Hints:
The complex is a heterodimer. Chain A is of the alpha/beta class.
Amino acid sequence: xxxxxxxxxxxxxxxxxxxxxVKANEGISLEVRDGEILGLIGETGCGKTTLGKAVLRxxxxxxxxxxxxxxxxxxxxxxxEKEMRRFRGKEIGIMLQNPSACINPxxxxxxxxxxxxxxxEGMGKKEAEKKAGDMLELVGISSLRxxxxxxxxxxxxxxxxMVAIGLALRPGLLIADEPTKGLDQDMKVQIAELIxxxxxxxxxxxxxxxxxxxxxxxxxxxxxxxxxxxxVEIGKAEAVISKPKHPYTLDLLHSLPGKGLRTVLGQPPSxxxxxxxxxxxxxxxxxxxxxxxxxxxxxxxDGEGFTRCFLxxxxxxxxxxxxxxxxxQPVIGCEKEEIWHC
Amino acid sequence: MWKYIAKRLAxxxxxxxxxxxxxxxxxxxxxxxPAEVIALARYGDDLSVSQIETLREAEGLxxxxxxxxxxxxxxxxxxxxxxxxxxxxxxLTEILQKLPATAELAVASxxxxxxxxxxxGVLSALRKNxxxxxxxxxxxxxxxxxxxxWLGLLLIWLFALTLQMFPSFGYGSLKHFVLPAFTLGTSMxxxxxxxxxxxxxxVMGQEYIVAARARGFDEGTVLIRHAMKNALLPVLTFxxxxxxxxxxxxxxxxxxxxxxxxxxxxxxxxFAMDFSMIQGxxxxxxxxxxxxxxxxxxxxxxxDPRIRYDRHD
Lengths: 342, 313
């Protein structure tokens, strides 16, 4: 097994807001290994973006972080701000969501790439501009367009510019937050292949944050599934897709167009006051009495996979055959003491 | 870009045409018969009806109003604003003589205001909701609330009468600039500082600022290269409009400090019922105001590429 490049240990992120404390990430532990693509999937608002930004400490001032985020042996959360800047861009690149909002509208795209080289590598103007042009070519944009402004590019092109910016300094880890959001199918595949191709070529690692299961399943080596601020399942991508262990993963997979388009029942929970016990229990077809009272830990390992559910896969499959999948009735009557025997 | 400039120029000319119409109508909307008003200004109180009628014919005031308007427009196009009813001086020459004093005061006030407003606004935005921010904003609230004429008088009392540091009126040396420029500049600075603060706070909350930090830039670079250019756009519009207003002559401040500019000329003409001079001044001020707005629009296009290029470019 390759070693961990980034390891997140028991990370909690909360935001103080007028509506109360939003617990966006709770007890997150995961690692991104050398040369690996880890897909982080989950529905909108579950805390994926927060996790991505937390790694580089880019969250707003009202965010409170505790736990550890260790990159190549350095705990990023204990660094002073000045030290932290050395990691941003250079060690860890990030492609934030929504390129049209992330690229400064009043600076030309070429200049925005060139200034990275001027700042970090002390290059002269000419040299940096040439390098910026090369970078644009690398992501499939003619270097002749380096003087063009963001509003002159299409969504797909802007995403390519984001790739160029994210990878400009050849970081060891790229965090890509929804890199294919809002793109048509063809462009989605092109952009995804571009990013993965470049990351693999550099032998870098990637944390791919997306709600697109198909994409994550086909590109990532391992998948982590997030629900209501928690990781509910981690495992090898094929295993998670073909044999999901958590009911939420299963429901997500069933909501894919190719698998019946059945939506996950109910609304995503509030992160201010999440449900008691297992956070997914109000929407889970397999819940039983104890689910609402006992918070399941990450159970496993089963091979390489962990899951935050009391039910084993085998047990659940059996139930699936007997019960309609989206039946919201408790399927097994089981008390806390009996959980481990269920 | 050229298309944008042409469009702006066309709009300015429409505005100016509108202004000529309003300025011309003002003479007819004012109480009394224009011929009588002119005759009064020219010959004094001792008037005969025949004198008024002769003048009416001589000045073309007996023609239909729209014909008079077109004739007047024709004169304007030849830069002929007529002659003063009181001094018989050429109106345009008189105005142009007063322009340098007004322009100098406008530039000086703008500088004073920006030198106070920009640092105060930026500091407040970066330290928002701290004591420093509250302090700056309280002072600027005072600045907005204090009327010019009162501040002017207060400054004269303190710096001219009590401390005797600066002259209280007149024009000529650098010292003469201090009090009027400060009076005008501070009240402008108050609003500009608030605008700078609000604008910068908004920009600093944008995603491209987070993205700039994500590239590893320090806060100074993020502020200067990524935030300020965006944040200054609304500030520029406001400062430009203020400059246009100042160029038109700060009527009250010029009067208080006996500053020999266009504002004072306008006030003096109003008291003297010098209609053609009033018309000339108002028209000139309107044109300057439009042109300074045009300059702002063009500068805006230089700073913001989204405006510079048409969508289909």
